[in-house]
Amino acid sequence: MSVPGQPEPRRLQITGLHHITIICSSLDQTVAFYRDLLGMRVVKQTRNQDDPNARHFFFGDATGSPGTVVSCFEYPQMEAGKVGLGSTHHFALAVGSLEELEEWLRYLTSRGVSCTEVLDRTYFHSLYVRDPDGHIIEIATTQPGFTADESPEELGSRMIEPA
């Protein structure tokens, strides 16, 4: 709440995603998918800090940069999750160009991995694939961006302001 005559307080800011955490049934299968198939590096192998009985692996770029990391808790006996409110539908991994995305399609299908065709999402192109536990992973281009059909000013004028 603003006070008349006082400057607005500094607005806190989110700078991006840090990491995504998923639950898997087998880290061996998960390593085969994220490291061996997708080429992500295993940047850390540890135990879950909240549950030392659960293994916890981190996959990411060569240095494990925040924003590239997918972390996995292993729970072999856990029941499959239910899709719905409170669950995550999918997460997206970024690639640099449409040409690279088309290469991903060729690469995945050449290895017998089921995935969608390349889809035009107006703001980016993408394809979808599932990991061994059924998580939906989107592989998406970073271009043309969310101003593909409108200017940044038009986009900003339609945003819903926080309460």
Give an overview in words.
The protein is α/β, with parallel strands linked by helices and 163 residues long. Helix content is 18%, strand content 28%. The chain has helices at 27-37, 98-110, 152-157; strands spanning 19-24, 41-47, 55-60, 69-74, 90-95, 119-120, 125-130, 136-141. The strands form 2 sheets. The protein has a 4-stranded mixed β-sheet, with helices on one face. The N and C termini lie close together (10 Å). The model has no long low-confidence stretch (mean pLDDT 90).
What is the structure about, briefly put?
This protein is 18% helix and 28% strand. It has 163 residues and is α/β, with parallel strands linked by helices.
Broad CATH class of the largest domain: Alpha Beta
Span of the ends, CA to CA = 10 Å
The appropriate CATH architecture of the largest domain is Roll
- Which structural class fits the helix and strand makeup? alpha/beta
Question: What letter string, H or E per element, gives the SSE order?
Answer: EHEEEEHEEEH
Work out the strand percent: 25-35%
Strand order of the largest sheet: 1-4-3-2
Extract low-pLDDT stretches.
none
Task: Output the CATH topology of the largest domain.
Answer: 2,3-Dihydroxybiphenyl 1,2-Dioxygenase, domain 1
CA gyration radius, whole angstroms: 19 Å
Mean pLDDT: 90
How many distinct domains? 2
